[in-house]
Design a protein that fits this description.
2 helices, two-stranded antiparallel sheet, about 15% helix, Barwin-like endoglucanases, six-stranded mixed β-barrel
């Protein structure tokens, strides 16, 4: 009986450890919380796969900061919220991209070093430094264009 309980607990812990965590954004009040903000169907979805013949993608960006600072990224680097990096579900690691905020036309060049975002209808998670340069800290998300400058391997 005790061995069944121990096995059940170990299995539950293993499954919980394998689940992904949600990145966070800020709302207009500056509160950090998980969000599921959605934009209308005019957004082009790029979540299925990456077409290396295409170099431009459109979608919604969010950012991640303090909660993940100092934690290993998916490629093994330590996340630094002050570096110009980003997380993508599909773009290869070390891909260099220009991310442009479509509302204010500010842009920043980033390197993909992590996987995410893990929220529906998001195309990229940018570092806090990138979010500052894109002027999206207060809104937490932004409609963006992503232009691939150099494909990673």
């Amino acid at each position: 009986m005790i061995s069944k309980i121990v096995i059940t607990i170990l299995l539950s812990l293993t499954l919980a450890a394998c689940s992904s965590t949600t990145r966070f954004t800020s709302n207009n009040n500056g509160d950090r919380r998980n969000t599921n903000g959605r934009y209308g169907s005019e957004e082009k979805s790029t979540n299925s796969s990456v077409n290396r013949n295409s170099k431009t993608y459109y979608g919604v960006a969010s950012y991640y900061a303090e909660k993940y600072n100092g934690i290993a990224t998916a490629n093994g680097e330590t996340y630094n919220m002050y570096d110009l990096t980003a997380a993508s579900k599909n773009l290869p690691f070390n891909t260099i991209v220009r991310v442009t905020n479509l509302d204010n036309h500010k842009s920043v060049i980033l390197r993909i070093n992590d996987r995410g975002p893990f929220v529906d209808n998001r195309i990229i998670d940018v570092s806090k430094k990138a979010a500052q340069e894109l002027d999206m800290i207060s809104s937490g998300t932004a409609k963006v264009r992503i232009d691939v400058i150099k494909w990673g391997k």
